[in-house]
Amino acid sequence: MIKHAKHTLCALAVAAVCSPALADKSSDAIHESLVVMDTHLDTPALLVQPGFDIMESHTFDDDFSQVDVPRMNSGGLDGGFWAIYSSQGPVTEAGFRESRDTALLRAMAIHEMVAAHPETFALATEPEDAEDIAKQGKKIVYISMENAYPLGEDLSLLETFYKMGVRMVGPVHFKNNQFGDSSTDPNGQQYGGLSDLGKELIKKANQLGMILDASHAHDDVLKDMIALSKTPVILSHSGTKAVYDHPRNVDDPLLKKLVASGGVIHVNAYSSYLKELPNDPERGKAYGELFKQMGNMAEMTAEEIAALKAKRKQIDMEHPAVRATFEDYMEHFLHILKVAGPQHTGVGADWDGGGGVDNMMDVAALPKITGRLLAEGYSEKDLADIWGNNALRLLQQAKDYAESLKKPQ
User: Which InterPro entries match (predicted)?
Assistant: First the structure.
């Protein structure tokens, strides 16, 4: 459905909420009436791959992708934050340079997607842009940076990325880096939270008007970010330790601290962060060998990429994946809603970055979340906050603080 048509359904959506008999029939209409955003789309990793066309319809079974325009339309996804992701390499000048180049290429790929399809996508940099773009029937493209490692030790580069449209930044990813501790580094903590440079990163992001993202960060880093940031912090794709005690998830006391500071948590759909999954050593070994062959897929031909995907399909056939279910995902979601409330909860499923659960393997399935939340008694206003308003509020607060620094004191 074309998104500007969504807003003509508001009256129907309100009637559905007021009439229990119509509620079940109208959950799709309510979903279509909202500005629906996900705060962590890893799809730029595919944009740099030869042969991938986001305007064409794909399936996860065919090429493992989860986001394209036809499926965004089917799932009522207006857009969200498209992530510039760089894997964690050595904390050296050479490592910084290589990662910086990767980040710049992914940023350029996002801009090229928008420029190539101006009738479909529009770059968003201001809080008010989301609704305006959705009303035009276009897809919302905010940009985020997952892992600030590409910045090296030169925080002036953050301003460069800001000028390229980045409005959200997270300091770390899978391992510790120059900015602080990761929740999943096999060697444990290095700093006990943010490093001194990490504290300067928080200050710089505040000055620019960027949302700070603590997903992947160690709990001590999140605590530091809440204490130091002048604006509320987001967890763009995380879960709850109360359901599954994994380092990537947050416990209730820390979640309450995040909420008390005005922050927001967006719920991840990465199976191994949702529940304990059975270990398959042979599958792990086969995937390890496959990853060694991948290298930089942006430099491969379409034929080479197709061959790698064929090998991946073979592995999945011989060693089938075991995933969490939609109910496992909703267990996290509903617990977080109970603790944090709908004004501090959202969706960041980690599409094209490992997210996806049985019965929700791509963005076409997003209306299932709305339907379930309506069935649980959440209102249309709650859904509007969850699907977009909460993240936009944080962006507005970040912008307001940055602009306050420019005013005469």
Answer: Metal_Hydrolase, Pept_M19
